[in-house]
Design goal:
The complex is a heterodimer of chains A (about 180) and B (about 525). Chain A is mainly alpha-helical and about 180 residues long. By secondary structure, chain B is of the alpha+beta class. Chain B is globular, with a radius of gyration of 24 Å. Classes of the chains: A mainly alpha (about 180), B alpha+beta (about 525). The interface between A and B is medium-sized, with 21 and 31 residues.
């Protein structure tokens, strides 16, 4: 195997987590489906693990394996009409660094997040919503009471706790200002 | 290449197996000493401790029924509580028992065998056929599996190879192997479908092949549908008829059942070739007065086609699914490749032609093409540089168990492999020192409708308040389609120790013990069929 490739592969493996999928496949963000496919074939030709099956250098073999898995990951996302626009928006936004690897929130996760936000019990939700309207009306002491009530129904809800603490701080601030 | 540095390609089938190597740059099927090119995947344990494998062992299904194992591939990698195992217990003459961790074991006289050990004996026979032909030892192999095999079944097949004394270079999907054999050395760019109806399983794969690239676009299958099911239909027909005429149910006796099964398989082949089968089994049973009875029947093609039509239709439902996943219609395809013995049946050929609106490719041997593809892949993995690239996919969605018996998707089906995906978990109790996850494969979000791969337990991370420890679990599917799970503490990067708590697989010690046992087992040489 030629030395330049070896150096290139090692360098690529180093920076893998800083590249977006377009950079992994070495294509522009406007590339069409046929361009994506031929880029995928081109990169597969270069990095397919079968080519390096007999490679004695275990570290390099591991690096190539990591690169190739990322090439597959990039291809899966970019060839998909639904995932690709979302991904492009993700990496063009302020959280680019966190979203270089496509994350698909599952339905259950989304439902769970929603539930965590406003609660899973009717009473908890009622007091939590009341607390939120107190916050909006700057009635921080009332808000804290409502969040505490909500917490008696759902003691493990992290969102309730965060809001209670937030209200608590605002009460103190209120007092110091006065 | 040094002597011994050859890798063989093995098609380990439900009913028949085949072995191939590369000679002068081309794959060739290696026959055994009697010129047989395919070998029944049957293992018969003889009284003297030796073991007979292949077509001569198949003849023992009736005479040495209790000690002759066939269709082991239907059971490999399955849990003891699965339906397939229950079904096998009812019809198989050999004894199927429960091993540790819900695994399946076969009892032969006082010995107990795991399924990988049984398959290892078939693989050992394939290995020795090549060794006999070449005059030296071979140590490496590519072994094929149905594309729709799950992780448990792939892992068990890989274990079987190791137990047989082979280094398994790759677990290769059967339809992919067939496509490789078809496209190898041809400068073609085509979209093809491989319709693979074997003895026990059905697979369909849609591929795009270029001059050096073989990309699987989608795969779908049914691991409960194969030629055996066609035999079963004939069996039911024969048995019902016999019951009506003579008042005796042949299915109640396992020996009669075996004779019936053998007659049915022969009838299926005859009716496919000659459009009619004359079935005659002399002395199939005795009536209550001790009179020996014969079974005679005539099966016409029309009758046979009526019996199996729903099975044939089932394969096309699976084809619909594969085409849909590949975002194609039948008319987009340039070629259809038929694989597996049952595809010789006219009913299959005409139905396939009708469904795809295209004649299936001629000149491809459906019994040998998979082994040849495996040999090509074996050869290319042995070379320093591959001339072609197989871009294969995972057939089933990988999932993790969540609360309330549900599952969450991790890696979608038809995702190219190798691939990995990570997911973060946090502890939900103060001082929690273990995180347990269950992994599944399947297309339902209900855990009970998916195949359980195993339960992993992670420990060795920091002990802290709930929610403070984040554990990143990485799921990887390798080029063999085998799943690996590792976990690390996000903050410290410390890899955790992983224990697999529930698994039908074999431990390292069990594999080593089986290797020694298999190496010591003498393969008897039978006679030509």
């Amino acid at each position: 195997m030629d030395e330049t490739f070896e150096i290139e592969a090692a360098a690529l493996a180093q920076v893998l987590d800083e590249l977006d999928y377009f950079q992994i496949l070495k294509i522009g963000q406007t590339a069409g489906p046929s361009e994506i496919k031929s880029a995928y074939y081109r990169e597969s030709r270069a990095y397919h693990p079968d080519r390096f099956y007999q490679l004695p250098n275990a570290d390099l073999k591991e690096s190539i394996g990591r690169i190739y898995k990322r090439i597959n990951e990039a291809y899966v996302c970019l060839r998909d009409d639904v995932k690709r626009p979302k991904y492009l928006a993700d990496i063009s936004g302020p959280e680019r660094q966190k979203k270089l690897r496509f994350v698909e929130a599952s339905e259950q996760e989304m439902k769970k997040d929603k539930e965590q936000e406003i609660g899973t019990t009717p009473q908890g939700r009622k007091f939590f919503m009341a607390g939120l309207s107190d916050m909006a009306g700057q009635r921080f002491a009332a808000a804290e009471r409502n969040f505490k009530m909500a917490l008696t129904y759902e003691p493990n809800n992290p969102n309730y706790k965060a809001k209670r603490d937030e209200a608590g701080k605002l009460i103190k601030n209120d007092m110091t200002v006065r | 290449m040094a002597e011994g540095e050859i890798a063989i390609g093995i098609d380990l089938g439900t009913s028949y197996s085949c072995v191939s190597i590369i000679e002068n740059g081309k794959p060739v099927v290696i026959p055994n000493e009697w010129g047989e090119r395919t070998h029944a995947s049957v293992v018969s344990f003889l009284e003297d401790g030796t073991v007979l494998v292949g077509n001569s062992a198949k003849r023992n299904i009736i005479t040495n029924a209790d000690n002759t194992v066939y269709s082991a591939k239907r059971l490999i990698g399955r849990f003891f509580f699965s339906d397939e195992v229950k079904k096998a217990q009812a019809v198989m003459p050999y004894k199927i028992i429960e091993g540790e961790n819900n695994s399946v074991r076969i009892q032969i006289r006082e010995n107990v065998y795991s399924l990988p050990e049984i398959s290892a004996l078939v693989l050992k026979e394939m290995k020795s056929i090549v060794e006999n032909y070449l005059g030296h030892e071979v140590k490496k192999a590519v072994v094929t599996v149905p594309a729709y095999f799950n992780d448990n079944q792939r892992q068990a097949t890989k274990d079987a190879g190791r137990i047989a004394g082979l280094e398994v270079l790759r677990i290769l999907n059967e339809p992919t192997a067939a496509a490789l054999a078809y496209g190898f050395g041809k400068e073609i760019t085509q979209k093809i479908a491989v319709y693979d109806l074997g003895g026990g399983t059905f697979d369909i794969s849609v591929l795009e092949i270029g001059k050096d690239v073989f990309e699987v676009l989608s795969t779908a299958g049914d691991t409960y549908l194969g030629g055996d099911d066609f035999d079963d239909r004939i069996m039911t027909w024969l048995a019902d008829d016999f019951l009506k005429k003579c008042g005796i149910d042949l299915r109640l006796n396992k020996y009669c059942l075996q004779m019936l099964k053998e007659a049915s398989e022969r009838a299926k082949i005859d009716v496919g070739r000659d459009a009619v089968a004359h079935i005659k089994v002399e002395g199939i049973c005795q009536d209550p007065t001790g009179k020996v009875m014969d079974l005679t029947a005539t099966l016409t093609e029309a009758e046979f086609n009526r019996m199996v039509m729903d099975l044939v239709q089932r394969t096309f439902k699976v084809c619909d699914e594969a085409l849909q996943s590949a975002r194609m219609t039948a008319s987009d395809l340039d070629a259809i490749i038929l694989v597996g013995g049952p595809t010789r049946l006219p009913i299959i050929r005409t139905s396939v032609k009708h469904y795809f609106q295209k004649d299936p490719m001629a000149g491809i041997d459906p019994d040998e093409v998979v082994a040849m593809g495996a040999a090509i892949q074996a050869g290319s993995l042995m070379e320093a540089k591959s001339e072609h690239y197989l871009l294969d996919v995972t057939p089933l969605t990988l999932r993790v168990g969540t609360v309330g018996g549900y599952t969450d998707k991790i890696i979608d089906k038809n995702t190219p492999i190798p691939i990995e995906r990570s997911k973060s978990y946090t502890t939900n109790r103060d001082g929690q020192d273990k995180v347990k996850i269950r992994i599944y494969q399947g297309e339902s979000n209900k855990a009970s409708e998916c195949e359980l791969l195993g339960e992993f337990e992670f420990s060795g991370f920091r002990i802290a308040y709930r929610g403070e420890v984040r554990i990143e679990v990485t799921f990887e599917i390798d080029t063999n389609g085998i799943v690996h799970v590792t976990a690390a503490d996000v903050e410290t990067g410390q890899k955790t120790t992983t224990t697999i708590r529930l698994s039908s697989g074999l431990t390292e010690e069990m594999i080593r013990a089986a290797q020694a046992k298999t190496a010591a087992t003498q393969l008897a040489r039978g006679a030509a069929a």
